[in-house]
Amino acid sequence: MAADYVPAPEPVARLIEAFNRLPGIGPKTAARLTYHILRAPAEEARALTEAVLAVKERLRYCSLCQNITEHDPCRFCQDPQRDSSAICVVEEPLDVLALERTRGFKGLYHVLHGVIDPMDGIGPDELKIRELLARLRDGRVKEVVLATNPNLEGEATAMYLHKLLAPLGVKVTRLARGLPAGGDVEYADEVTLARALEGRREM
Amino acid sequence: MPAPRVYKAEGIVLKGRELGEADRIVTLLTPQYGKLRAVAKGVRKPRSRLAGNLEPLTHVAVLVAHGQSLDIISQAQTLEAFRPLREDLWRLSCGLYLAELVERFTVEGAEGHPVYQLLLETLTRLALATREELLLRSFEIELLDHLGFRPELGQCIACRRALEPVENFFSPGGGGMACPGCRYKVGLTRPVTVEALKVLRLLQRRDATTLARLRLRRALAAEVELLLREYIAYILEHDVQSTVFLDRLRREAAAPPAGGRPAAPTG
Ligand SMILES: [Zn+2]
Ligand SMILES: [Zn+2]
Predict the structure, then answer these.
(1) Contact A119 B15 (CB under 8 A)
(2) Cα–Cα distances in Å, from B186 out to A149, A186, B178, B180, B194?
(3) What is the pTM of this model?
(4) What is the pLDDT of residues B199-229, one digit of tens each?
(5) Quick one: which ligand is closest to B166's CA?
(6) Does B261 touch chain A (CB under 8 A)?
(7) Rounded to a whole number, what is the distance in Å from the CA of A4 to chain B's nearest CA?
(8) What was the ipTM of the complex prediction?
(9) Domains (range + CATH), chain A
């Protein structure tokens, strides 16, 4: 075992492996990132390390909406200006940011941190559904807006939540689905087109 | 002859897996190429022309280009979206179960016509039908047939004698039934009632007329289901994941989970 050929020094291999574990990063990109850091000034590497650690050490889940936050409860849940009778349910924290940019929703949020995906063994227990039910317990919430993605897993999750919430007497709504802005009727798939027809509005 | 750079295929989308920022690796079952994995670029962007056409459980026509590692789907057009299936959580979950079975049992690059035809027919019936459970059992039995795992239900796998109308035993390892005298010679077994064996034989014979008249008690349906589930898991050396969610939906339909407030009693 003395003269084994080593393809890359151990710390390099370890960093490549760590990057490779991130979503959307293959072995080639992982190697490219690693060699970038190897060549970068020490401050850049230190800033990256600190940013990574800060995310883990300073951020937590809001005990109410499960969004990631520095302070618990988060700024949405603490804001007296927001309408606490409506909760918008989303898949991921990034969806909250997207909805906030529209300035169209003044209520509170709830982040599921995933979707029901039976083939991958992800069921209701793997999502923050119990936490959502707990927020509905005192009856102050009058409407739950389901804003999961309009794909198969998002729809399955919305249908499951609807079934679960309907008996609680809360109004359950779903984001309207239709043609994307800038899209072309000709190219729309059958399901999107059918749902856009169902959701048509008087002008 | 070198493979053409671009080829057409018809297929049923079995699953999708997110790749990078906006792409997805789509697994299709096709009659010509068996299981086919290909990349759909930009499919997760709202304006993508591919998007709605490549959701799981869509019957689709695709144009595929040869890529370096994986092929790339350049166009997709829905042939059948099975909408009723998509709008009912139970039937949708049944459909996903079928897709997972096929995805686990099939390999890439092998011709897949009979299984393709079976899946297409079953999804079509699932989108219309009411007796989903029986449809799933028929599918399992036929799938096992096509893949060379037809269970022996007529005679004992050890002594080869015809089975008596008594409690017999199923051996997943032996791929069939054993008589009470041989049950300890064929590895692990589970007892099978006379009625369950009868149902299994009807399924295997594809006796649609008799099956249509059949009213299965809950316990009998569960016995048949668990036997097949055990046999399938034995062959795959893996559990079929989506059964967990199917079981849960059934459980919750029988006894709704305790929500925030006491659930309203339903009829
Ligand atoms: Zn919060
Ligand atoms: Zn025997």
Answers:
(1) yes
(2) 49, 60, 7, 11, 19
(3) 0.86
(4) 999 999 988 788 888 888 999 999 999 999 9
(5) 2
(6) yes
(7) 31
(8) 0.89
(9) 10-58 (1.10.8.420), 78-202 (3.40.1360.10)
